[in-house]
Amino acid sequence: MISKLILFSNFLVFVVSDGYICQGGTLVNPPLDLTEPFYFPENWNEGLPPATFNASQYCNWRINMLEGMYATVTFYKDADGADSSATQIFVDYPNGDNVYLQDNDDAPYIFTKQQFQISLIAHEKQGKFSFKVVWSEYPAEMCKINIPLDQYQLIPQASTNCAVTFTAPNKVWLIAFNGLFNQASSFLRHSAVFEGGSVNGNFLGTLDKANGLNIWSNGKSLTVYTFGMQMQDNRYVFLGMDANAAGGNVQRFDGLDCTDTPPESCYVYAYSYDVGNKAVITASRNIDYLYYVRRLAENATLSVYEGQIDKDHLLTTISGTNYNQKLPLAVKNTVKIYKVDTMLTQVSLTNDSERAGYGKIAVLTGTGMQTVVHSFDYRQLSLEQDTFETFTADILVNFKFNVVSFDVNGNTTLDIEIYQNGLTVLSETFTKDYKPRSSGYTAFGDKISVKYQTYGRATKGFEVDFACTSKDATTPQPTTPKTTAIPKTTVIQSTVSTPVITTEKIITTTKGSSQNYALICFLAEVLYLLN
């Protein structure tokens, strides 16, 4: 029979004129009726301000749970005042992890079997502290999601009422995403991670820990349970991967989600030193735009991966010497990974193409611009590959592009057009019967558009690499666009597609020399027409 039991070992609680006093520790067991919460102090409840405690004392509570139970605990603390060292109040999880409690943070904590502890160390100042414990049983019929991993996959998961079990060939590596700006800790701590395939395994930590330090299973599987926590927009909350999927040279990941973050505060921060390294992962159906380098050493290289961490999924590398040519950059796929090889990097990230200045070509004399245009789920069979992107320049530039990959299913088309002063100077429509040449294409203009259409069929997408410079250019005559007959097909709109990029924001220009150059080209064209 379970009974409510409070054992006092040199423990005394009483109220004096200036607060309560406690010496020693107490053990608290769950009650027979789980609807009855435990309050401390006993004559306090959540409708009252937290109770005052006296200075110069130590209190400890050890709170038990039985198999199949968990506890939801709400703390009410106002004890830091002007000197946060005056009082220390912290909790110890069943695995030994401890967390210091913050003032005025009443978001609940979750604790699992067998026992957790609450400690209060008061120094020379008084403070206010109370708490409430509610015991609950896990659902009798708990739904289960099993996710098998191979040695390369990185699989994200949204919040769910089910227990989620990852199983890997070696060990499971778990990363969580800080989905709420300044509230990530309180949100992610409403969770528990267990060793093995159920909630009966040993407690490994919370998703809050998985975000900052990551969690590894001891065996080949672990289970995540979020106690009914639901995230808006079905965004991803955590991600599982095999322990070897990072290639052996990453010690931990930061899970980054800037959905609720002020734009100026969102950036990729990765480092690599002898004493440790950290890479960054994002997971969403949004496009990441990298657009401004805050810190990056000349000898450092930031590698950008899509989907997996291997050379086949490497989108590009950004260094301290080429970032002017590479940024802004659109990074796609559900999972994006950012890893630096030495020292550290800090690069601004946004999901807003206009803020990034994406689609506007800013050519620096002697350097040019290089970019990669591809479908969102490139390399994966998907119905969501349709893409339409446009890039414009304020001056005439020399475009050089190469079609790296072009997957076709039925009537799939890839249209690439280059314009000069509103007139088409190059137009190519690639189909299953007309494939792009390997030597690439070159044209002189001020705008390029890339359009990939699948007409509702699944493909593995496409990739087009192009570069543009303002030197060594010749002025061709505008030509009539070439057309290719396309069979009539009902177009099925995809639920998610790559957005049309039409931004006009300029990142960097060198207008003095560029305008003179454009004028010379214009006069040359006039003389050509007069002849």
From TrEMBL:
Domain of life assignment: Eukaryota
Species annotation: Caenorhabditis brenneri
Statement: the UniProt record of this protein carries the keyword Signal: yes
Keywords assigned: Signal
One Pfam family cited in the UniProt record for this chain: CUB_2
Signal sequence interval, chain numbering: 1-17
Domain CUB-like: 18-139
Keyword Secreted attributed: no
Protein name: CUB-like domain-containing protein
GO biological process, one term: innate immune response
